[in-house]
Each structure stands twice: as C-alpha cells, then as structure tokens.
Specification:
The structure holds two protein chains of two kinds. Chain A is elongated. The longest helix of chain A has 20 residues. Chain A contains nine helices and 16 strands. By secondary structure, chain A is of the alpha+beta class. By secondary structure, chain B is of the alpha+beta class. Chain B contains five helices and six strands; from the N terminus they run βαββββαβααα. Chain B starts with 6 loop residues before the first strand and ends with a helix. Chains A and B meet through loops of A and helix 1, helix 2 and helix 3 of B.
C-alpha cells in the first residue's frame, strides 16, 4: 500500500531519458521492402524513460523547449569532467555490447571484449579474464580493425560513442535525475571534450567547479568537410557545442577577453625623463665598519670580496692561501694588487 | 511499438535478417542474462512462422537489436549507483534540489518559536 510522497519517492539519481541528435527513418529498398536508416536532425530530440513522473517530465520539457529545440539549458551534477563525460570506441552485436576500447597517447587498450561467436568474456573492466583473455589482451590492435562480420559478410568495426550526463533545470523540480546525450560523431565528441575542459579550467582558476555553472547545449549550423566514397566535399551540418550561460557565462567571457587583450588605462600621456642612477650602496659588512669609524676594517671587508681567477675558477681573495695572496699582490691589475695587500695586512695583524 | 504477440506472421519474416535475430540456442541464454535497456523489464522470445531463428524483444519497446539490451547485473549495479549518488548530487546542486536535503530534527526552542510561544 503506497503512501504518496513517502513510499513511492525513489531516492535515486536515475536516468530520466536521452537527448538525441538523429532518428531512424524508413526508406524503400530496390526490391520494394522497407528498412530504416539513421538521419541527422537539426534539433535535439528527447526520449523519456518510463517511470514515476515520466509524463509530467515530458510535458515539462515540451512546455519549456517545444518540439524542436536547438538550445538546451543544462547543468552538471558532479564536480569533475570525468564523472559527467566519457567517450570510447564501442561495437554492438544484436543489441549487446561486444567490444569497448579507449585510446591513450601510447595507443588503444581494451576495456571490454566479448568473443562475437562464443560470447565468452575475454576482457572486463580493462583487465583480461582467464588465460585466453591474457593472450588476447597482449595482442596489438587498431580501433579500425573489424570486430566481426554481419550476416551479409560486411565487416563491423568499433565506433566512437560519447556519453554526457546533464541535468535539465526546467524539470529538476519533478525528479532528481539526468538525461544522457550520446553523440557518435567525432566532431561533436571533440567539441564537447575541448569546451568542457576549457570551462573546467577557468572555473578551477576561480576556485569553482563545473557543478555550479549554468551551461547551454546547442546545435549550430557549420560547414564541415565530409568524405563521400573517397571524395572530400563540404556540406552543412548541425554541430553540437557547449557554451556557458547566465551571469557566470557573461563574467567568464569578460574575464577571457580581459586576459586576451592588452590592458588599457585612462590617463594623460607624458614624456618620461631618464631616471637618475642611484648611488651604489656598500655591502652590509662595509657599511657597518664605516659606521663604527673603522676605515681599515671597511677596506678589508671590501678587499676580501675582490674576485680573482685561480686555475680557471672564480675565488674571493680571502679564500686564497698566503702564497697565492703574495703572488696576487705583486701581479695583475693595480686594484687587485692593492686589495691583496689589504687582505695580507689583515692576516698578519690577526696572527699577532 | 504496440504490444507484440508471441508469434510473427511469415510475411513479416523478410524484414528480419540474421543480424536482428537469434538462434534457438542463444535465445534462452540472452533472455536469462539480459533485460530491456529502457524499462529494465524481462525479454521474450518471438517465433517467426516457418523460421528457425527467433526475435528477442521487450513486449513494450520492441526488438532488442534495435533498442539494445543490458545485462541484468549491469542494471543492478546502475540502480545501486543511482541510490548511492542521490545524496551526492543533491548536495552538489543545492539551488535545484536543496529541498530534498534531509534536515536534522528541530530543537525544542525552534518548535516553540514556530508555534508562536
């Protein structure tokens, strides 16, 4: 027996639905039969997971965005990009995942692999399963290698799949949950990774995270280069981007512009005269000796810091042996000779 | 998709090629281990008249080869994770879900103040 609001409120962060950028459309084959093929749309399409409030959530989305939204307000429920965004290469057979791989700088690596014929799992959570799994795991591979052949004998390869977990604030009062946007285009995956990374870096500079920022998921018409039967051509495509919205966005964009431009100051320009060269101050020990009225001590403090070259190395005069000092007092430049004599006198006085 | 019956007429069989069907050996294993990715409901076998291969479908959402399928163990993990993450996300987005935060019981003084004493 349910008690509304107590027993039937799921305390879970559930997927409420999916945001799609394409749909399956029917087409007629040459033999008269019909089939379906994926078609790219110029707007976002929502699908809703059945469950509590699903009809209200659908109504809320339709009221806020209409039937063909090209711009969605989104928020992220976690502080780190890795928790809301992930992209891998995946391959499905008869609706089930059979291969999943990631790519690092060092090359591709398996995350999951199920043998297409025997259905035996060889790799799970990035680790090999059993001796066969270990053999398979160590074999080098390429993400473009076909995973299996379909009934017509056509090779089926892995394809990039991204998953972005977003919260739609307009329906947040109806349920604690998220929508998944699943782009399959490398261009969209690249855009989302780069833009999300940039906003995350800016937010962290100011001690914030992506969880507190209002974002916009948008579709923008751009001219892209496509490969049709080996020929490169240009066509219009509705590419997906992430932008920051609201006050935070305005301030972030202002901050970026301020950093990118030279600093301007309102002031009257004046000619600047050459600065007067400051009198060189004596070192601390010399200054102290002079202050105490001991000129001889002041001379010694200056002289012992005199630098001479000894066998290719720079040394202070007070680091030299007595023999080296005698040599320095009779050879070299006059100021060096004078300094060496001061240091020698000081040593002889100390010896007495 | 409308609710499916357990047998598909032979005329419709041509729309289902090998890639969208399962052998009768595979079918029980798939039904045992997988569920519908949309409602997490159980899957059913649908026989095609005069064909040895069968379709596996969710009675509400259709053929698993079109809608996908998810392992029951993965669904259980997702459900557990969703419960665990609930408190994390309502704390991370207090402006959206602050009202769901569980508050500590009110003190006697707070109760008295609320009652107007």
């Amino acid at each position: 027996m349910p008690i509304s609001g107590l027993t039937n409120t799921p305390k879970a962060f559930m997927e409420l639905g999916r945001i799609k950028k394409g749909e399956m459309k029917e087409f007629k084959r040459q033999d008269g039969s019909t089939g379906t093929k994926p078609v790219d749309l110029d707007y976002f399409r929502f699908t809703f997971r059945e469950g509590q409030n699903s009809s209200e959530i659908e109504k809320g989305i339709r009221l806020s965005y209409g039937n063909r939204p090209t711009e969605l307000n989104v928020r992220f429920a976690y502080h780190n990009v890795q928790e809301v965004w992930d992209a891998n290469y995946e391959c499905y057979k008869q609706g089930g995942l059979i291969a999943k791989a990631g790519v690092r700088d060092t090359g591709p690596y398996w995350i999951f692999y199920r043998h297409p014929e025997t259905s035996e799992v060889l790799v799970r959570d990035g680790s090999p399963v059993g001796p066969e799994g270990r053999d398979f795991f160590e074999r080098p591979f390429d993400v473009t290698t076909p995973i299996y052949k379909n009934a017509k004998g056509e090779p089926v390869c892995m394809e990039p799949v991204g998953r972005l977990q977003v919260v739609i604030p307009e329906v947040a009062h109806l349920a604690v949950g998220y929508f998944t946007f699943q782009p399959g285009s490398p261009r969209d995956i690249r855009n989302i990774s780069a833009e999300l990374g940039a906003y995350d870096a800016i937010a962290r500079q100011y001690g914030k995270t992506i969880a507190g920022i209002p974002f916009k998921l948008i579709r923008r018409k751009e001219e892209v280069t496509v490969n049709i039967n080996g020929k490169l051509s240009k066509k219009d495509s509705w590419v997906v981007h992430i932008e920051v919205g609201g006050e935070w966005g305005r301030q972030a964009i202002e901050a970026i512009e301020r950093l990118a431009l030279p600093e301007y100051i309102d002031a009257v320009a004046e000619d600047v005269t050459e600065p007067v060269e400051a009198e060189e101050l004596p070192p601390m020990e010399v200054a102290l000796a002079l202050a105490s009225g001991n000129e001889q001590e002041a001379d010694y403090e200056t002289a012992r810091k005199f630098v001479v070259m000894v066998r290719g190395k720079e040394k202070f005069l007070d680091e030299l042996t007595d023999e080296q000092l005698v040599y320095a007092s009779t050879h070299g430049k006059p100021e060096q000779q004078a300094a060496a004599k001061v240091v020698l006198d000081h040593r002889s006085q100390e010896a007495k | 998709m409308d609710e499916l019956t357990n047998e598909l007429p032979h005329e419709l069989a041509k729309f289902y090629d090998e890639d969208n069907t399962f052998t009768q050996d595979e079918a029980p294993r798939v039904i045992n281990k997988y569920c519908c990715p949309i409602c997490w409901g159980t899957l059913s076998e649908i026989y095609i008249q005069g064909e040895s291969r069968v379709i596996i479908a969710c009675t509400l959402h259709g053929n698993v080869c079109d809608i996908g399928r998810i392992m029951k163990s993965s669904a259980a993990i997702q459900m557990e994770r969703a419960h665990f993450q609930y408190h994390v996300v309502i704390r991370n987005l207090p402006d959206l879900w602050g009202q769901f935060r569980e508050h500590l019981p009110k003190t006697r003084a707070e109760n008295m103040r609320e009652l107007g004493f």
